[in-house]
Amino acid sequence: MADGPVLADLHFGREDAERDVTEGLLLRGGFLPNAAYRAAVSGRKMLIIGRKGSGKSAICMQLMADSTHTADRILVTPDETAGEEIRRFELQGLPGDSAKALIWRYVFALNAARHVVAHAKDMHGRKPDSVKALARFLKQNDELPGERLGDRLAQGARGLQTSLSLEAFGIKAGVDLASSPSEGARAARQLEVVEQGVAKAVVDLGCDGAHGPLLLMVDQLEQVWSAEPDSNSMVIGLLLAAKHAASLYGRFVRFLLFLRSDIYDSLSFGEGDKFHGDELRITWTEQALRDLALARARASAGEDLSAGELWREIFPPAVRGEETAAYVFSRCLPRPRDAIQFLNLCQETAWLIQGRGRITEADVLQAGRQFSAWKLKDLTLEYLVAHPFLKHLFPLFQNSGYVVTRPVLGSRFEEAVETLHRLFPAYADALTLSGVVDILYGVGFLGVRRGNDVVFAGGDELPVQPHETEFQVHPCFREALGATSAIDLRRYEPQLAQARIASGYIRADALAASSFNRDDRLLREAGRSCHSILAQVGRALELAQDARDEITQQITSVLDDANSLASSIGTMDAEEYLLATAHYFTALGAQLHASGLDAVAGGGGVASRMEEEARRLRLLAGGSYGSSGSSNGP
User: Fold this and answer.
1) Beta strands 322-323 and 318-319: pairing type?
2) 489 with 554: CB under 8 angstroms?
3) Radius of gyration over alpha carbons of the chain, in Å?
């Protein structure tokens, strides 16, 4: 593969599906059909639920562009004007959810009516009386194509709250509906007349199931949602209306609703259990993200691009010893938008900033630091409505180990809780230790240790259980927080003896054989202490693997230093070295205790062994070699 041109052409697409469609990449093969897309196409599911950036709008845009499976497609995306009309729509005698359901049903009925009238003319060349009645109804109520959704909603709301013109269906509203006991009952009766008119026209055309259905989709509801009761009623009303309309219009109209998971999960209503069979939640595995990356790379750089060329020639084969694709996707939240942003940032760092023809490990690391900062800020914005306090929780994890226990998190939280309650008094009930853990787990910031695995939210995982006490910050956010090590351990620095070697310093008694032999034994005992601690770490299976790796790395550094100094006997002070090593072991043990891991994950044995070996080395350095050296084996 030639340098330069492929990397210059390589692009993984835009973060938003609308621009991907406009620029053509999504339609050139950059879309990866997944379970949610297949469920949407087949009509098996009505609710497609996923986090921001999980690909809901990409499915929607693909369906809008693909006429294979449907006769026609209508996309409803409420703007603020439309959202305000729905939120403030009320009817005397009806609860908020039911009132909002009526206005949504009216929107669906109008779209279905327009489609039936146009379909009868274009596909059948005839208009049964029921279709003509629909056409007259639309004209009499000024419901003409091309009007903005907000304007139509405002007009429909006024009609439902007062009276629609129903003469087209043989009903004079002022007379026939005068006996309605309430405003809500009157509106419901008017709407039933319209819906029955649409249903009759569908039956009279006789084409139900004879061709693809009208696909009526609602997307981007988050643009008008505010976590207030009226907003929740707006969404609940949409769900109720879609289920009602789906049963009313049969196979002639199919409904597809795209909802953000945090919005859907916040809803609480009596009929919520009736929607479980309609739900499909978008989930992404690492393999699915790999497939998506390759599909988008091929759409931009050429169909003949192979996975091997992408991940071993354009990208470096490994980053920090980890296969590159695994490294990249483990540092993204599992959704396409994050993967696309990280991959594009790697390409831009190499090609635009560094002027390289291939992406290097340094480019990926540099991009990773920028990406982590982006994602920490994006997480705050994603949940700004539901959790406005989120960014004030991040300092609890800053410049520390990314493995954190419940007791340690509790002590940090206690220092911040007064400020949090003062800044966000309306959220005081949620701002407890258990509440904060649940929120941070739910948004994907924290994972929970379960057995030998760390589980992050995103699929069907259980929420955090009361007995679970060890958590990890997601790799996506570690660079931005300065939490790149499992535990906040002091790094081992080689002893000052090396500086003395370089300067040619020699002790006065360095030539004494007895001194030489004792120094050699002391250094071997330092190595023995390292082996003892490493053996204890290996037996601490309850300790998080990342924590064990971090401890092992530091103790191995001590061992390597001791072995290198053993070849320089006579040029250093072995007693001073042992005391410095003992001090380091003591500090490490204290840090391990402070991390809380000794209390909940078997780390106590490791910390205790460090402290025991520190005491033993101090005794040896004081001239007590042999008195304690033979009784503290691993």
Assistant:
1) antiparallel
2) yes
3) 33
Judged against a pLDDT cut of 60, whether residue 3 lies above it is answered with no
Nearest residue to 31 (alpha-carbon basis) of 340, 476, 285, 325: 340
Q: Give the side-chain half-sphere CA count within 13 A for 250.
A: 14
Secondary structure of residue 466 in the 3-state scheme: coil
Work out the mean pLDDT of the chain and round it to a whole number.
84
The residue with greater pLDDT, 473 or 168, is 473
Q: What is the pLDDT of residues 327-355, one digit of tens each?
A: 999 999 999 999 999 999 999 999 999 99
**DSSP for 184-216, written as a single string:** HHHHHHHHHHHHHHHHHHHHHHT-TTTSPPEEE
- Nearest CA among 86, 40, 488, 507 for reference residue 282: 40
Pick the closest to residue 86 from 214, 204, 237 (CA basis): 237
Q: Are 99 and 89 in contact (CB under 8 A)?
A: yes
588, 489 contact by CB (below 8 A): yes
In angstroms, the CA 382 to CA 52 distance is 7
Q: How is residue 297 written in tokens? A: 């790379």
Of the two residues 141 and 427, the one the predictor is more confident about is 427
Other Cβ atoms within 10 Å of 182 Cβ, number: 12
CA 557 from centroid of its chain's CA atoms: 36
Asked whether residue 263 carries a pLDDT value surpassing 70, the answer given is: yes
d(CA 138, CA 153): 14
**352 secondary structure, DSSP code:** I
Q: How far is 481 from 394, CA to CA, in rounded Å?
A: 8
Instruction: Indicate the SS3 state at residue 259.
Output: strand
**C-alpha torsion sign, points 313, 478, 590, 597:** negative
Query: Do 120 and 151 form a contact (C-beta atoms < 8 A)?
Result: no
Query: Can you tell me the distance from the alpha carbon of 145 to that of 134, in angstroms, rounded to the nearest whole number?
Result: 14
Q: Which residues pair with 473 in a beta bridge?
A: 446
HEC sequence for 579-601? HHHHHHHHHHHHHHHHCCHHHHC
| Spatial distance between the Cα atoms of 526 and 497, rounded to a whole number of angstroms | 15
For 353-403, write each residue's pLDDT tens digit.
999 999 999 999 999 999 999 999 999 999 998 899 999 999 999 998 999
Check residue 54 and report its DSSP letter.
S
Decide if 20 contacts 268 (C-beta within 8 A).
no
Gap between the Cα atoms of 444 and 50, Å rounded: 13
**Of 335, 287, 328, which is closest to residue 55 (Cα–Cα)?**
335
Structure tokens at 430: 């949620």
Contact (Cβ atoms closer than 8 angstroms) between residue 404 and residue 472? yes
Phi, psi values for residue 454, rounded to 5°: -110, 120
CA distances in angstroms from 402 to 24, 407, 448, 507, listed in the order given = 41, 15, 12, 44
Q: What is the pTM of this model?
A: 0.81
pLDDT band with cut points at 50, 70 and 90 for residue 507: very low
DSSP for 210-256? TSPPEEEEE--GGGG--SSHHHHHHHHHHHHHHHHHHHHHGGGEEEE
| Cβ atoms of 549 and 322 closer than 8 Å | no
CB neighbourhood size of 16 (10 A): 15
Q: Are 588 and 496 in contact (CB under 8 A)?
A: no
Give the DSSP H or E segment for 101.
helix 96-119
The answer to whether 444 touches 457, Cβ cutoff 8 Å, is: yes
Q: What is the pLDDT of residue 627?
A: 40
